[in-house]
C-alpha cells in the first residue's frame, strides 16, 4: 500500500503540483512572518548590545528632588530658551569620568553626549528621517561595547577629531547621497545650520540597525558646545572592563566611588531593559503579522481540504479496488495520509523558500513606513523551520484525514460500479453546526467589543474567526438561493452554456462554497478595514471641524519637537492674533501591576480654552498649573479618576505627582487625554521644545501666509499648513496603515485565487469523460471555455457577496464599539466595496483561463475513453 501510494502520487504530477500550491503559500506566510520578526528582534537586541559599555553610569534624581511640585526639580525651569533646557538635563562632570577610568578593573572610561534632534539634510534640501524615528547626534569616543563587542566602528574614512568634522552612519550616508570628503548640511534642534565635512562613515560590526533613525557624531568638544552649552559635562559614561573582570565586579567597584546622585548598572542590564521595553512597544508588529499568517493559514487550509477532497474523489474507484483486493480500511486511510505527508514535506520546503522572499518583501514594506531594516541580514532561527514544517505537515495531514476517513467507508463491492460516490457529511448537520459556531462567534465578538472581558482582542479575533468558519460550514445550505439565482441568470443570458455552468456549481455545493470561502475570508477582512479606515478619516475630519479653531498649524515632517522660539517669532508677525504651542511626551504610570505607558499633553490654559476647544465638565481648569492635570472624560472613567485624585508618573526618569483639577469633554484634537501645563515638562528636565503650533490670524491670505512661511523658511523640518492640509496630513497615516493591511491581505487573496484555479483544474480532470461527451454531442470549444469561466465567476461572486456582507457587519460593529474613543463617525465606503466586487469578477475570469484552456484542448475520443 505504501509503494502504491507513492507510485500514485508520482503518476499524477499535475495534480501533485496543484496540491502543493496551497501548502507552499500557507507555509510561506508563516515562515516569512517568523523570519521578519526574528530579524526585527535581532536588529534591536544587537543595536542595544552594541550601544552600551560594560558598566553604564548615569545621573539619577531622588524622588523628593524630582517630584513636582515640592522639589528643587529644575533650576531655571520655565525661563525658556535652550539654556534652560540644557541646565535641566541631568549630566555628570568630566572629572567624574576621569575618576572612573582609575577604578581597579577598569580599562578605560568614556563620557557620552547625546541629542535627539540633529537632522541630516540631503543634497536635495530634504531632511533624511523617518516619521517618529529620532535623529541622533552624539560625540565619537571609539569606546568598545560591553562584553568585548565591537559597536559602531569607522568603515570608511576617519573619526572626527576637530570642529567642522562629522561622521554619519552608513545608511544615512547612503540615503543622503554624501561621500567622505563632502560638505554635509545639518540642522539642530537649537535651529543651528551646520556645514561640517564628512570625514568618516560608521556601521555596526556585530549586526544591528538604527531602524529608521539617523546618527551623527562629532568630536567631544563640538558635541558639548552644541548640546551642553559648552560645559565640560556628559549625559552618561561607559566604563570598559579590563580582561578577566566581569561586568558585575566592575559595577560594584564603580559604585563604591560614585558620589550621591549617580548610579552604575551593568551594560547587559541596560541593554536588556532597553531592548525589552522597545520590543514590548513594537510587539504589536509581531502580533499583527502573526494574525495575517493565521489568516493565510486558514485560507490555505480551505484550499488543502478542497484539493484533497477532489483528489480522493477522483481516486475513489482505485481505492475501492484496493479494498476489494484485501486492503483494510486503516491501510486505505494510511495511504492517503502518506501522500499528504509527502506533499506536506515538499510544500513546506518550498514554502520556507518562498517565505524568505516574503520576509524581504515585508522588510521593504515596513521600510516605507520608517522601520528601515535594510542593513540587518535576515535571521533564520530554528523555530522558523520547526514551525513551518509542523504547520505544513500537520495542516495537510489533518486536511487529508477527512476525505481519507470518508474513503475508508467505501464498501469493496462498490468497486464494481462505473461511478463511486464518496459519502458526504450531512448538509443538515453542517448547517446546524455552522449556525452554532456562528452564534458562539457572535457572542465572543460582542463580549470583546464591549470590553467587559480581559484580553478583549482575543475575543474579537476568535469571534470573527468563528463567524467566518460558521458561515463556511453553513454555506452549502444558505448559498442555495444564490446558486439557483446564478443558474437562472446565466441560463437566461447564455442559454444552454449558462445552464450547464449553473448546474455544475449546484452539483457539489460543498465544494463550490469551500472554494468561495477562501475568497470570502480575504474580502471580509479587506471590507472591514476599508470601513475602519474610512470611518477613522471621517472622524478626524469631524473632530477638526468641531474642535479645531485655528487657521494654521506648524509641525515637523518627521514628528520631532522643535525650538520654542518659533512660537515667539510667529506671535510677532503682523496679523497673528494667537499662537498656541502644544507639546507632548510619554511617561509611565506608577501603581497597579507594574508601570503602564501613558502619554501626556502640555498646553497653556488660553490655548486649551480657545484654539483647541477644550470644554471642562467638572472641576476648575483655571487651577491648571505645574504639577496638575485635567483628564478626558472617557479616560477618567476608564481609569477611575476624579477631581482631587493624584496621578503618580515617571517622566524622563523623574517621579511626578500630578493632581487632577478637572475633567474635560473628550477632545480628539489633543494628542493624549491627560493634559498639563508646559512648565510641568520643563521641571521634569525635558527640553523647551514644542511638537505643534496652532496659529490664529485676523484674516488668512497669501500675504500673511507668506510671512509665516518666512519664519520657518530656513528650517527644513517644519511645515506650515492650513486646516485642509492639516486634515489631509492627519488622514495620511490612516491611509498608509490601511494600504499596508491591504498589501498583506493580498497574499490571502492570492491563495484564494489560486484555490479557484486549483479547484477548476482538478474539476476539469475529474470531469474529463463528461467534457468529452459534451464535445461529442456538439459543444464547441469556445462554449466549453465560457462554461468553465462562468463556473469560476459564480464561485468568485459568491465569495465576494459573502465576504463583503460579513465585512460590512464586522466594520460597523467594530466602529460602533470605538465611539467612546473619539471615532464617532461610521462611514461605509460603498465605492471601495463595489471595487472589491469588480475585482472578484475579474478574479473569476482570470482564474478560469488555464483550466478552460486545458479543457478545450482535450482530445474528444481520449476524453470519452477516460475512466
UniProtKB/TrEMBL annotation:
Cite the record's Gly residues compositional bias ranges. Answer: 70-83
Question: Where is the MacB-like periplasmic core domain positioned along the sequence?
Answer: 18-256, 512-668
Q: Which residues cross the membrane?
A: 284-313, 334-366, 386-404, 431-450, 456-475, 737-765, 786-813, 833-852
Keywords in alphabetical order: Cell membrane, Membrane, Transmembrane, Transmembrane helix
Stretches the record annotates as Disordered: 67-89
Identify the InterPro entries for this entry: ABC3_permease_C, MacB_PCD, Macrolide_Exporter_MacB
Q: Which family does it belong to?
A: Belongs to the ABC-4 integral membrane protein family.
> Cross-referenced PANTHER family, in alphabetical order?
ABC TRANSPORTER PERMEASE YTRF, MEMBRANE COMPONENT OF TRANSPORTER-RELATED
This protein is called: FtsX-like permease family protein
Amino acid at each position: 500500500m505504501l509503494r502504491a501510494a507513492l507510485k500514485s502520487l508520482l503518476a499524477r504530477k499535475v495534480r501533485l503540483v496543484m496540491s502543493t500550491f496551497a501548502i507552499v503559500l500557507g507555509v510561506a506566510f508563516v515562515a516569512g512572518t517568523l523570519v521578519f520578526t526574528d530579524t526585527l528582534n535581532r536588529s534591536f537586541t544587537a543595536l542595544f548590545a552594541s550601544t552600551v559599555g560594560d558598566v553604564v553610569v548615569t545621573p539619577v534624581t531622588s524622588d523628593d528632588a524630582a517630584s513636582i511640585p515640592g522639589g528643587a526639580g529644575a533650576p531655571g525651569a520655565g525661563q525658556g530658551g535652550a539654556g534652560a533646557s540644557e541646565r535641566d538635563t541631568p549630566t555628570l562632570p568630566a572629572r567624574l569620568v576621569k575618576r572612573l577610568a582609575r577604578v581597579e578593573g577598569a580599562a578605560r572610561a568614556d563620557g557620552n553626549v547625546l541629542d535627539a534632534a540633529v537632522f541630516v539634510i540631503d543634497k536635495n534640501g530634504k531632511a533624511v528621517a523617518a516619521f517618529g524615528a529620532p535623529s541622533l547626534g552624539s560625540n565619537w569616543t571609539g569606546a568598545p561595547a560591553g562584553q568585548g563587542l565591537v559597536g559602531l566602528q569607522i568603515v570608511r574614512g576617519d573619526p572626527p577629531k576637530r570642529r567642522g568634522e562629522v561622521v554619519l552612519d552608513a545608511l544615512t550616508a547612503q540615503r543622503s547621497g554624501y561621500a567622505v570628503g563632502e560638505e554635509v548640511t545639518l540642522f539642530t534642534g537649537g535651529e543651528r545650520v551646520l556645514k561640517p565635512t564628512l570625514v568618516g562613515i560608521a556601521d555596526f560590526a556585530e549586526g544591528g540597525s538604527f531602524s529608521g533613525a539617523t546618527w551623527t557624531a562629532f568630536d567631544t568638544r563640538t558635541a558639548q558646545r552644541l548640546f551642553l552649552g559648552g560645559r565640560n559635562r556628559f549625559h552618561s559614561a561607559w566604563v570598559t572592563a579590563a580582561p578577566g573582570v566581569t561586568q558585575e565586579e566592575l559595577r560594584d567597584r564603580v559604585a563604591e566611588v560614585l558620589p550621591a546622585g549617580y548610579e552604575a548598572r551593568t551594560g547587559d542590564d541596560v541593554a536588556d531593559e532597553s531592548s525589552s521595553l522597545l520590543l514590548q512597544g513594537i510587539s504589536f508588529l509581531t502580533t499583527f503579522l502573526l494574525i495575517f499568517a493565521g489568516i493565510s493559514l486558514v485560507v490555505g487550509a480551505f484550499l488543502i481540504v478542497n484539493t484533497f477532497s477532489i483528489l480522493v474523489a477522483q481516486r475513489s474507484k482505485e481505492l475501492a479496488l484496493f479494498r476489494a483486493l484485501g486492503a483494510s480500511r486503516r491501510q486505505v486511510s494510511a495511504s492517503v495520509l502518506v501522500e499528504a505527508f509527502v506533499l506536506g514535506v515538499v510544500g513546506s520546503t518550498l514554502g520556507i523558500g518562498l517565505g524568505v522572499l516574503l520576509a524581504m518583501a515585508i522588510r521593504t514594506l515596513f521600510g516605507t513606513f520608517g522601520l528601515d531594516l535594510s542593513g540587518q541580514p535576515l535571521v533564520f532561527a530554528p523555530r522558523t523551520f520547526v514551525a513551518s514544517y509542523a504547520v505544513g505537515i500537520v495542516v495537510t495531514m489533518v486536511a487529508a484525514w477527512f476525505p481519507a476517513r470518508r474513503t475508508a467507508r467505501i464498501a469493496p463491492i462498490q468497486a464494481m460500479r462505473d461511478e463511486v460516490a464518496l459519502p458526504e457529511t450531512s448538509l443538515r448537520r453542517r448547517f446546524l453546526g455552522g449556525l452554532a459556531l456562528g452564534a458562539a462567534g457572535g457572542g465572543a465578538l460582542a463580549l470583546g467589543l464591549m470590553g467587559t472581558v480581559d484580553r478583549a482582542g482575543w475575543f474579537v479575533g476568535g469571534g470573527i474567526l468563528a463567524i467566518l468558519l460558521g458561515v463556511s460550514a453553513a454555506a452549502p445550505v444558505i448559498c442555495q438561493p444564490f446558486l439557483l439565482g446564478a443558474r437562472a441568470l446565466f441560463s437566461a443570458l447564455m442559454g444552454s452554456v449558462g445552464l450547464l455552468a449553473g448546474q455544475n456549481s449546484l452539483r457539489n455545493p460543498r465544494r463550490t462554497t469551500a472554494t468561495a470561502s477562501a475568497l470570502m475570508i480575504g474580502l471580509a477582512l479587506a471590507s472591514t478595514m476599508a470601513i475602519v479606515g474610512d470611518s477613522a478619516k471621517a472622524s478626524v475630519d469631524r473632530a477638526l471641524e468641531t474642535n479645531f479653531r485655528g487657521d494654521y498649524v506648524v509641525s515637523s515632517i518627521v514628528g520631532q519637537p522643535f525650538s520654542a522660539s518659533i512660537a515667539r517669532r510667529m506671535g510677532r508677525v503682523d496679523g497673528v492674533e494667537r499662537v498656541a504651542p502644544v507639546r507632548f511626551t510619554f511617561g509611565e504610570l506608577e501603581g497597579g501591576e507594574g508601570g503602564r505607558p501613558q502619554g501626556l499633553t502640555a498646553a497653556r490654559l488660553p490655548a486649551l480654552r480657545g484654539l483647541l476647544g477644550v470644554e471642562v465638565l467638572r472641576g476648575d481648569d483655571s487651577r491648571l498649573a505645574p504639577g496638575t492635570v485635567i483628564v478626558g472624560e472617557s479616560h477618567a472613567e476608564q481609569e477611575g479618576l476624579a477631581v482631587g485624585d493624584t496621578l503618580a508618573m515617571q517622566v524622563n526618569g523623574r517621579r511626578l505627582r500630578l493632581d487632577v483639577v478637572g475633567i474635560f469633554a473628550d477632545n480628539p484634537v489633543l494628542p493624549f487625554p491627560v493634559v498639563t501645563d508646559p512648565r510641568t515638562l520643563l521641571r521634569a528636565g525635558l527640553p523647551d521644545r514644542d511638537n505643534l503650533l496652532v496659529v490664529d490670524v485676523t484674516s488668512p491670505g497669501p500675504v500673511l501666509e507668506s510671512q509665516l512661511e518666512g519664519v520657518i523658511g530656513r528650517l527644513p523640518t517644519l511645515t506650515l499648513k492650513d486646516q485642509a492640509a492639516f486634515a489631509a496630513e492627519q488622514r495620511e497615516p490612516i491611509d498608509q496603515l490601511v494600504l499596508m493591511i491591504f498589501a498583506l491581505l493580498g497574499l490571502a487573496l492570492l491563495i484564494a485565487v489560486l484555490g479557484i484555479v486549483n479547484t477548476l483544474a482538478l474539476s476539469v480532470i475529474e470531469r474529463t469523460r463528461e467534457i468529452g461527451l459534451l464535445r461529442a454531442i456538439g459543444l464547441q470549444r469556445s462554449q466549453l471555455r465560457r462554461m468553465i469561466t462562468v463556473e469560476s465567476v459564480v464561485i468568485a461572486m459568491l465569495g465576494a457577496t459573502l465576504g463583503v456582507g460579513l465585512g460590512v457587519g464586522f466594520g460597523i460593529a467594530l466602529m460602533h464599539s470605538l465611539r467612546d474613543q473619539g471615532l464617532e463617525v461610521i462611514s461605509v465606503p460603498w465605492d471601495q466595496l463595489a471595487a472589491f466586487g469588480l475585482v472578484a469578477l475579474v478574479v473569476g475570469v482570470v482564474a478560469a483561463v488555464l483550466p478552460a484552456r486545458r479543457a478545450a484542448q482535450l482530445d474528444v475520443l481520449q476524453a470519452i475513453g477516460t475512466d
